[in-house]
Design brief:
- The structure is a homodimer of 185-residue chains.
- In chain A, 63% of the residues lie in helices and 8% in strands.
- Chain A has 185 residues and is mainly alpha-helical.
- Chain A folds into 2 domains: 78 residues, Arc Repressor Mutant, subunit A (Orthogonal Bundle); 93 residues.
- Chain A has a two-stranded antiparallel sheet with strand order 1-2.
- In chain A, a hairpin with a 7-residue loop joins strand 1 and strand 2.
- The first copy, chain A, is elongated and about 70 Å long.
- At the A-B interface, helix 1, helix 4, strand 3, helix 5 and helix 6 of A face helix 1, helix 4, strand 3, helix 5 and helix 6 of B.
- Chain A binds a DNA duplex (28 and 28 nucleotides) through helix 3.
DNA sequence: GTGGACATGTAATTGGTTACATGATTAG
DNA sequence: CTAATCATGTAACCAATTACATGTCCAC
């Protein structure tokens, strides 16, 4: 049982999903490719934590819809109370930012502008999803025992993070621009 | 050449270091254990991007002090201008936060309180380092061509991130507490 | 006609963690 | 006397990415 396994269980306890859906919606709190997810779902099924049914589709490939079992629920609930291992973040951009003094203003500005674009798209997506949730569930989102609570607080966290990233990039850009002006006087 | 290799080069271009030092100071923008770093330093040395000298120490093991070569500098500089791959973050706590509705208020509060402690320590450390930098280099930190610039902007970013994390945890805790009160009336 | 969404899987490789290994010094 | 810091390294294992593999439909 690795972290990804618990991540899958925590999504499936809210609603039954296909591996394809899990791959897409996992992004908020974990990242994994389908090549890691499909074998793991099979493993969890063998361990009696999941079951699945086929849904036949014409024109599209058949779906395998996975559902969590009582055993899966138990295993997940017990795990939540254990101490989480420290967060790991690996971001190539930060290496480049650290070494940004080696390059020219144009290259530096381009890097930061692309970073802004990248996060701006995330912000738009995030705001849309938050608005959808608030419209659909309203005050119920602030009930810690409701199944949408976790997703809601995570999206709020991510939005702040993404907005701060853009602000920070703009701050750095302002320094870069300011410096270029001074140099050309 | 993987991301870690560039992370090592970007540290070594600022000043020569031992593998041990690199392991410690890398934390801001990458994470790696010494078992990954030592073999990679050897590999970079074989590729003529690094050189090293032994520093004999009595009572402590000998040090290998690595220095970047002109080739290493060139390879690093060229890499900076290339498009960075998207950030990857894996945080077990977020899985637990997502599934927090499954547990009781006490367990949930403990998780969030421990998270606050974890980040508060980081904030203290970060503030100390920023203060040190500002004292030592002052306005020079805002010069994008100075070697401290990258480190400074990264620390500023990290501090904000860590402070926001604590604020968010406190917001969630306030919801949890508020809800417990209502339930017990 | 090309690329993307849908949908699932395996194989090969690289990246990263844990454990093994050594050894002196210092602080609690 | 136990744990932590300094200091470097290897081996075994697990986690994750990239590449291989298949097939239809729809939009541009």
């Amino acid at each position: 049982m690795n972290s990804l396994a618990y991540a899958l269980l925590s999504m499936l306890i809210r609603k039954s999903c296909t591996g394809y859906e899990l791959t897409q919606f996992l992004e908020t709190f974990w990242q994994a490719k389908h090549s890691q997810i499909y074998p793991l779902l099979k493993k969890l099924e063998n361990a009696d934590m999941l079951t699945f049914v086929y849904e036949h589709q014409t024109a599209k490939p058949d779906k395998k819809i996975y559902t969590i079992t009582p055993k899966g629920k138990e295993v997940l609930s017990e795990w939540i109370a254990t101490k989480p291992s420290p967060p790991v973040s690996r971001d190539e951009f930060l290496i480049k930012a650290y070494a940004i003094w080696l390059t020219d203003t144009e290259t530096a500005s381009e890097l930061f502008n692309e970073r802004i674009d990248f996060y701006q798209k995330k912000i738009d997506f995030r705001k849309e999803k938050i608005a959808e949730m608030e419209l659909a569930y309203g005050q119920q989102l602030l009930d810690p025992t409701a199944s949408h609570f976790g997703r809601y607080i995570l999206f709020k966290r991510k939005l702040k993070l993404e907005q701060d990233e853009v602000e920070w990039c703009q701050w750095v850009l302002s320094i870069l621009v300011n410096n270029t002006e001074q140099a050309s006087i």
